[in-house]
C-alpha cells in the first residue's frame, strides 16, 4: 500500500500502453487510473521477482509478454474477430487452449437489459514465476489462485457463461 503508482516512471511506455493496455470498460475515465489499479493490485505483488521489481520493469515485461502472446492473431486464425458478430464461448476457449496449450481465464460483462449476449471484458493468461505460460485453472488439490469475480469501478466482470452468445467488442464502449 505504500508503493504508489507514478506514471512518470513509465513515460516512455505510454504510447504502447495506450494502444496495447487500454481500459476497455471505461473509455471516459482517466487512463492512468486503470494502470494505477493494475500496479497497486498486481504489480506490487509481482515486484517480489527481480525481473518485475519496478513499475518500469512490471509494465515493460507485461507489454513484452502481451506482444509475444499476440492474442488477436490467434483468435483471427480461428475466425474470431472483434466485431458485432456473436461467438460461442466454447469455440473461443477451445481456440485459445489449442493454440497456446494452456487454459486462460476469460471474464465477461453479463448481458445488458434487453440484450442476449455477454461481452468479453478480459482474457487473462497466467504465468509461472519464470514467466512461462501456465493454466489459469486450479490444479488438483489446490485452491483456485484467481478470484472468480473482479470488481473494477462499478462494472462487474465474472467468469463467462458457456451457454450465452458472446460478443468480442471491436472498440472501447461505455457500459451502463
UniProtKB/TrEMBL annotation:
GO terms of molecular function: hydrolase activity; ribonuclease T2 activity; RNA binding
An annotated GO cellular component: extracellular space
One GO-annotated biological process of the protein: RNA catabolic process
SUPFAM superfamilies found in the cross-reference section: Ribonuclease Rh-like
InterPro entries found in the cross-reference section: Ribonuclease_T2_eukaryotic, RNase_T2-like, RNase_T2-like_sf, RNase_T2_His_AS_2
Organism of this sequence: Strigops habroptila (Kakapo)
Record field: catalytic activity: a guanylyl-uridine-RNA = a 3'-end 2',3'-cyclophospho-GMP-RNA + a 5'-end dephospho-uridine-RNA; an adenylyl-uridine-RNA = a 3'-end 2',3'-cyclophospho-AMP-RNA + a 5'-end dephospho-uridine-RNA
Protein name: Ribonuclease T2
Record gene name: RNASET2
Family: Belongs to the RNase T2 family.
Keywords: Disulfide bond, Endonuclease, Endoplasmic reticulum, Glycoprotein, Hydrolase, Lyase, Lysosome, Nuclease, Secreted
Compartments, as annotated in UniProt: Endoplasmic reticulum lumen; Lysosome lumen; Secreted
